[in-house]
Amino acid sequence: MAEADKGAAVLSQDSRRRQTSWSTAEAIKGYIRDHGLTSGEPLPTETELCEVLGVSRSSVREAIRTLASLDIVQVRHGYGTYVGGLSLAPLVSGLVFRGSLNQDGTFGTLREVLQVRIALDLGVADELAAHYRGTTNSALRALVTQMRAHSRAGESFAAQDGEFHRQLLAPLDNTLVRQLVAAFWEVHTNVVPMLGIPRAADIDSTVEAHDEMLDALEAGDAEAYQQAVLRHYAPLRNAIDQALANG
Which residue range forms the structural domain that includes residue 29? Predict the structure, then answer.
């Protein structure tokens, strides 16, 4: 057989193997749905899956690897395979990688991430204002105080910022929104250091905007909250726009 024919045969074999693996992965997802399994519940053993699905052991193993990379299943060595956390981790990983391919792509990706974060925060204003109206929130105020101290010391306050947003959105009756906010915050946090954006002179306004957001929500003022959200993101948005303009 000619070398070209051998190469084509190998590619064809690889393609068939990928197709089989993918169809097996879809079958496993169907099994999870059909049996009403939820996160943390065990799947049948590898041997049982082979019998139930009518596929080879190698197809099941490859499918499990694929599903594990998507957090649809979790392999606990020595214990078995379980339904995964079904998190948005693959989305985060993909966006971070896309942003790392080149600097122009990174700035563009970060601007898109920022636009989504802003849209999500603005979209929940009414629900948050209704929940927080008339309340006091010492734990959130403490996080703002910590952010302020780190900012004045020229230090990162990413951890406190992330915790602030996580706690602020915790009362939302929408798990997907909370997961999306957390996912895009993680992309943001991972991509920003790649850019080398200098600390903006008005970065302190980002910290103070957190206080203003909380003031507005405790007053039940959704519109004031939305304005504070825009002030919160303004320094980074301006830095990204300037970087893109200079690029």
Answer: 3-83
Same domain, 159 and 220: yes
Contact 24, 55 (CB under 8 A): yes
Examine the domain organization and report whether 229 and 144 are in the same domain.
yes
Cβ-in-10-Å burial (0-12, 13-18, 19+) of 41 comes to exposed
- Report d(CA 190, CA 233) in Å as an integer: 16
Neighbouring C-alpha atoms within 13 Å toward the C-beta of 137: 26
Q: Are residues 128 and 170 in the same domain?
A: yes
User: Within its chain, how far is the Cα of 95 from the centroid?
Assistant: 9
The torsion of the CA quartet 121, 119, 117, 69, rounded to 10 degrees, works out to 110
Helix, strand, or coil (residue 146): helix
pTM of the model: 0.67
d(CA 50, CA 65): 15
Residue 125 exposure: Cα atoms within 13 Å on the Cβ side: 19
pLDDT digits over 189-232, tens only? 776 666 555 455 467 788 899 999 999 999 999 999 999 999 98
Length of the chain: 247
**Which amino acid, 181?**
V
In this prediction, residue 90 carries a pLDDT of: 73
3-state secondary structure of 165: helix
